[in-house]
Amino acid sequence: MDPHSTGDLFSDEALQQPARREQIGEQSYVLRGYALPWLERVLPELRAVLAQSPFRHMVTPGGFTMSAALSSCGELGWTTTTQGYRYSPLDPERQQPWPGMPPILRELAIDAASAAGFDAFAPDACLINRYVPGARMSLHQDKNERNYNAPVVSVSLGLPAVFLFGGHQRSDKTQKISLFHGDVAVWGGVDRLRYHGVQPIKPGVHPRMGPQRINLTFRTAG
Ligand code: SIN
Ligand code: FE2
Prior knowledge:
Layout: H1 3-15, E1 20-25, E2 28-32, H2 39-52, E3 69-74, E4 77-81, E5 84-88, E6 90-91, E7 96-97, H3 103-115, E8 125-131, E9 137-140, E10 152-158, E11 161-165, E12 175-179, E13 184-187, E14 196-198, E15 213-219
Keywords: Dioxygenase, Iron, Metal-binding, Oxidoreductase
Cofactor: Fe(2+)
Enzyme class: oxidoreductase
């Protein structure tokens, strides 16, 4: 057995603190380290998804190339076109369905939703964002989904990020929340449409994930 993989497994577990749930809004939480015990099962599946539908930089309807690269898995994937943002059953690069959502990813998302008070989460879309140092995500609402009954479940991997959690108006004050490898943020209910974004990622190399941050966002889109 590769001694490094065993080392990683133990270091992930050693890092894991007793589940800490931080409330960041009326129906929003950060579950610190929640994903760590899942990662040995999640990362190989994620790698397989990305081998099928690799990261790409999408161009917004306004003509800007997004600094985060993205991919998707699940029945629906989030895409940009000149017309706007939408969910599509096909990966536009390949004109093929997105890779299926691996059961272990779905399970993690459902468990985390439930730990944040949202039972019966049924995600059909997992957006995968990759941020290299300097990449960011400007303030936006997640509002391309058909309805907003289901929460958004967001898993952070790799380099830390400063997550901006705003209000219902773009101009509302934002809270700055540091998100680390293995943290899961969940927002839903009255907080479902709150503006959020990610500040530019600081340079660094994560011992497990390398010089990048990967974020998985699960939603019920269709
Ligand atoms: C997103 O809002 O789609 C991504 C959020 C994150 O990367 O933490
Ligand atoms: Fe978002």
